[in-house]
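How it folds
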Amino acid sequence: MIGMSRRFLRLLTRRQVAGPAWWSVVSRLPVYLMSLAMVLVVREQGGSYPQAGMVSAFYTVGMALGSPLVARRIDRTGRRGVLLTTGLVYPLALAALVWGTAPGTPGQLALAVIAGVSLPPANACMRSLWARLPLRDEERETAYLWEALLTELLVIGAPLMLAALMVTGSAGRALTAVAVLGGIGALGLALTPLPREVADKDRAARAERGARRGGAGPLRDPGMRALTAVMAASAVPIGLMTLAIPAFVDRHGTPGRTGVVYACWGIGSALGALWLGRAQSERPVHRRFPWLLLAYAAGTALPLLAGSELTLALALAIGGAPIALVSAGEMSLVSTLADSRLLTEAFTWASLATVVGEAAGQQVGGLLIDPLGPHGVFAVAVGVSLATALGAFACRGLFAKGALPDPTALSPQQP
């Protein structure tokens, strides 16, 4: 675990990496708490839960519709202009939503859509940048493992940060502060210079893309389509279990401890990345990815053995260990399967696939909780995850494109 932490530290303190990496962390703070923050703001304004859910849903719809278009714009024109624009529009839209609208009004819903569309695309920008930086293969694997670990840390830590801000002020002030921080991060990421060889390669890729207008985008590649489908399917069990965990705690424990039990899942994933990540580069990613999904399916089965909230927390912590590794494998495959001219859009579609899969799992889980109970939903999650692993094994030939060297890749930087 200490060895993996040192690898992260060496990577993230490198001169060419530190600026973009840390600005991207600041820019991503709103991503993992904004839907919750909006619900709290609308309730604070006196709105009902249905009104709060509507605002959050409109924000999510705006994000889903806008993010591929924003990413395509980055691939065509470069990241700086897009990040500068979204870094300004996003906090302004959210501030106007908080301080200038009332619950349930058309203006509030419109601003929620605008905020969703203008969410700074730091996730896709940074993940595509990792693919273009002059890194050795082992360092790039470490970079994507860091991205997966960062997701878990933000999922756990961002709501805690929101709670801390609300202690000293209202939900509206907390949301505004987080939105401004996200905007500052996007501006910092936009203004941080890239290594010359990366900038030159980006300009060449944009020029080539401009000469070939009318492409179908990254999903025209069969390997990318297969990977996107696998990513969506692998997110369905997450959505199912998101419903089953609180239902289990309601029946077998204390409802107030649901958050603690749920957090054990993310903690297990983060510890798995630190504990097991060092051995990840020993096999090509297209070969180990299906096995990681099989380990993920085995981990999904552990909650079937739980009989109390304590044993469920333990099962989630142990069973969650492969989750970040699966996510890192997905990102590595995207970076090698996608056309180098379309990397930002490719990572955006990959992220959307997981969002759609998780949302579908939540919807199905909500329908199955009453007739099947928590253990029944856990069993459905196991079945879906096993089917996903089998699908990944069947697609290994399509994923193998990632094992082929890219003749246009940058030469590795010497340590």
Notes: Residues 226 and 351 are 14 Å apart (CA to CA).
